[in-house]
User: What shape does this take?
Amino acid sequence: MHKKGTLRQILLITDGCSNQGEDPVAMAALAHEQGISVNVIGVLNEDAPEYHRQGLKEVEDIAMAGGGISQVVYARQLAQTVKMVTQKAMAQTIKGVVNAELQQILGSKSTMDDLPPDKRGEVMEVVDEMGETMNLEVLILIDASGSMEDKMLTVQESLLDLSISLNSRIGDNEFAIFAFPGKKKEVDELLSWSSRLDSIGKVFSKLSLGGITPTGPAIKEGIAAFARKRSSKRSFLSDDAPGYIEESGM
Amino acid sequence: MMPQDISKSPVCNLAAGEEIRGKWNKLPYRIRRRLGYGATGAVYLADSMNGSVALKIGHDQMSITSEVNVLKRFSKVQGKVLGPSLIDVDDWQTRSGTYPFYAMEYLKGETLFDFMKARSPEWAGILLVQLLTDLHTLHQAGWAFGDLKPDNLLVTGPPYRIRWIDVGGTTVMDRSIKEYTEFFDRGYWGKGSRKAEPSYDLFSAGMVMVNLAYPARFTRKSDPDRQMHDLRKNSPMLRPYAHILEKAWNGKYRYAEEMRNELVLLLNENDKRSVKKNKKSTVQKSTVQNRTRQSQKKKEKSFIAETFLVFTFVFIVYLFYILGQTM
Assistant: This one.
């Protein structure tokens, strides 16, 4: 058995294009470099979906740069999507790590997909096991621009549903919620690191919906929040190394 | 990256007559028709060298590999055939990419809804008993089914038997459920976690029954307990099972066998009741019996009342006695 590690994810929920501050695609690449995967869910407007889909091209670019997964959906599909994206992203990161290990063992460019089906099944069991037992830190970034107003209740329910799923795992979970734009700053912290999302209703009542969409600065702030968490942990735990997965002695 | 629209993926649009050959085992399969598709891929009816098979082709290595792992385990659950048996696992190489697939036994049968359309309502109870029997075996082997719903079930036969056709949600006990559908998921209804345990499947099994009575399904309202209570009461098909369904809803059964045994008892009772309807004399007899039972109860009640009165009287006398002593 391997020791438990930690997976770090940013989950961005937005319905539009960024229009202020740093390029979100660049910020996602920066997060990826520091072992944080960036996943994006684009929320479509029911009235003009096709026109709107064009505007959400950025969603895909951010996820690709952030080594994560993107999905564009209607608000009503949000609960399923939030969960699916989070879990797929976990599996993808783990698979990346497993592939890297495989390349060390088997050499060249072999990945899990190149293995014969039998061997693949055995590796998959290891991946499943890791997905179940690893600790997970998810930082949720919510676009609180005016057009998201009628979707906020759905976002809130989706996150509650996510916490039900993740807290059914063996590994530990921690969530933090940030919204952008904030009241006075570009980004506001709504909920600092916590294992439960039960109090999430109160958090959402604090939201004030603004006009601008500073997606880039929001991702940057997300990275900083992970860094702060890591350094506060380091004060009493020194075996914390950067990378996708820590302490994964496979 | 994931495709945005699964129905447009090449694995969901294979034409009849097309031949697929695996990269590893080199076995050929000729597509006959598509049986269905879902989030992880499509299932086709195909001809292999050894007859008809169900062929599942996916676009995601990991989910297909997980499913294969589960199917392999199923063949190891001793003495019982639970899911379809696994025949071959391979990769299909095309110009647009490599797609994993597996061939399994093709189960011929009717969907739960079609089956029930042509039959009397007590069949619902009998199918549920069969389902619970299989669930018990699966749970004993250390697994929960997870995504239990009519779409993943089939009635084969005659002799009629409920069978599982999609085992993609099957999860090792105590882990988090891999795959589920909101309507059948207790997490969605606010009735518990998504941890793989017998009570998770039993909740879904109850909801399968509810779905048979309400094929259109429905969404959660502000008070799900009340909502379900009313729905059970308002359906003539569900009413006899209301007590059992409520216990499953509230996670009161710890083992599938517990729920199964209660259901079997109830079904046997129901048989007696339908006999009563046919023979008037027995109905009268039973009402007479009921009456005597009632009068017995009344007698018991009056006995309790008498005892109570005597005790109160004695107590009051005693009080007066004490008072008299202290004065």
In short: Residues 237-244, 246-250 of chain A have pLDDT under 50 and may be disordered. Residues 6-234 of chain A form a domain with the Rossmann fold fold (CATH 3.40.50.410). The helical segments of chain A are 24-33, 49-55, 57-65, 78-106, 117-133, 152-166, 200-205, 215-234. Chain A has one domain: 6-234.
